[in-house]
Amino acid sequence: MRTVYKVLAYIIAAEVAVQASFVVLANAGLDKWVAGGGVLDKAVMESDEFPFPEVIGIILHGVNGGMVIPALALLLLIVSFFAQVSGGVKFAAVVLLLVAVQITLGYAGHELPALGALHGLNALLLFTAALHTARRARPATAGTPAGTPTATSV
Amino acid sequence: MTRIRRLRIAGACAATLLIVAPAAWLWQASLLPPAYSVMDMGYADEGLRASAAPHGQHAHMRHGDGTRSVVDLVADPRREPDVDVTLTARKQRFRLASGREVDGYTLNGRSPGPPIQATAGQLVQVRLVNESVPDGVTLHWHGVDVPASQDGVAGVTQDAVGIGRDFTYRFVARQAGTFWYHSHQVSHAQVAGGLLGALIIQPAGRPEADVDVVALTHLYHGIRTLNGSESDVTVPAPPGTRVRVRVINTDNGPTSTWVSGTAPRLVAVDGTDLHGPTAIDHAAILVTAGGRADVEVTMPPDGTPVRVQIGGPLSVVLGGSAAAPVSARPATTLDLLTYGTPAAVGFDAARPDRTFRYEIGRRPGFLDGRPGLYWTVNGHLFPDVPMYVVAEGDVVRMTVVNGSGEVHPMHLHGHHAIVLARDGKAATGSPWWVDSLNVGDGESYDIAFVADNPGIWVDHCHNLPHAGEGLLAHLMYEGVTTPFLIGGPAGNSRE
């Protein structure tokens, strides 16, 4: 269970990185499309079509961020009950909380774009928290409390 | 296994259950039955009532139990049609006016479907034949206050018309104006795919404009079109002529229209003429999803061409072949709250019989077992949404509040409502009648209408995927029932 916990936390950290890359992919694609004469308006935004191929980035960002990551974070919390990592439940809860904040900021950014900027900053917090959570869960060696770095581990 | 270890595992299981059980319960509770009636959906909202006095007449076409079915609410069946059209629906690959081929839906082999033209007062009869649309089709007469049985909402006023079947719509086109028709079965897919067309009702007598232009905007698979064309629509108009451009927005988001070459007037919104419209000096007109705007221009005497831009990339170009320059959208948007001059509206909206609230929000949850972030009506997720109950003859007031983070073009079937106020600021311009109202995020609109068209009417967001995500409620008249079911053998979609 400790390994599952660790792997889940690492996956969440990786997912945050993937999220960042998705959004920039879409943004770059939009730039290129508009530069080539494309016009973005609400009709295009609300259609199910792909005006430019990189728009997949924003769709995946939504699905990944709205469904996959929260599911992973919830799973991490559940696994933390069984994993017996010292402080593991606490850190899993922090990750889940940051995910909830992240989703809220993401949607609130549609209304108040400044909150979108916080969405970017909170992503870094979440990334760090998930990474830290994963690193704390390395197998405890005799006499070494979980979460204390050892020379052999990375 | 030690006692402590056992206790620890039991604790972990209990904690897991605490998380999983509520989620499982919510998931299970959200599952929709395979067939259900909208009459059993959600909860009845009788509104805030001014008095308990009886309203209106409930005399004709009652069944023994005092109710009447939507199917009985029809146009005079003995009257001969003045306009008689057959529309055959197909799912097919077709050629746009521009020559490009796309996959979608057609009516009589084309999309947009044939424009239907009628004169106010005429009885319009349209026979819809489904040749090859697998999910079934219907036609809804967007903006026309038709008898309830003719409203074309699958599962509410009729069954979806399956392949090989047909359905005949009949209604009197009472009000002159710009309307459109579209499928109301799996509408998010069928409307986007092209199952739609323009419906123009001319006033009886001499037309108001010398030149009449329909400008139906639609996005086919990301391809922007005006009347199916990917390029500007050019219409000859000699100097001094009056031109009416009927902008119809069939897409899912608001669009804008603005004019260069002369100062236009906005003469009608949603098929209803405005009173005392003045020349618009450098402002864009917002046309919400499903909405219409009739823009009138008088061609300049010096022969300057006039460009009516719609959305940005496409225009109606009026006048000769001389170049009409493209202009950027004006920064300001025409505010219909103060445009034009006031006039009598025919009822006292200040003394409503019922007052309702339609508050749009958004929250995570399950809809038919699927997790997501869904729209709410008065805090409830679909299908637990209000059924607004009215009696025939009621003056109804409704406050539409949007705190959902996104714009919603709200469309009430079967009625036109008058806008009384936005964000508490009273309307002081022309009577502003709508069937499709752009309610921006953070906005609140007070609207009023007379419940003079008995039936069961959907009141939903015309960003059609939003309707599918649960932003759809109903307005129901006391004593009116529907025999139709969402789901069921006809496969009526819940939108």
UniProtKB/TrEMBL annotation, chain A:
Keywords: Membrane, Transmembrane, Transmembrane helix. The chain crosses the membrane at residues 7-30, 55-79, 91-108, 114-131. The keyword Transmembrane applies. This is Uncharacterized protein. The lineage of its organism: Bacteria, Bacillati, Actinomycetota, Actinomycetes, Streptosporangiales.
From TrEMBL, chain B:
It holds the Pfam family Cu-oxidase_3. Keywords: Copper, Metal-binding, Oxidoreductase. Residues 94-203, 375-476 form the Plastocyanin-like domain. GO terms for molecular function: copper ion binding; oxidoreductase activity. Signal peptide: none annotated. Gene3D superfamilies: Cupredoxins - blue copper proteins (2.60.40.420). This is Metallo-oxidoreductase.
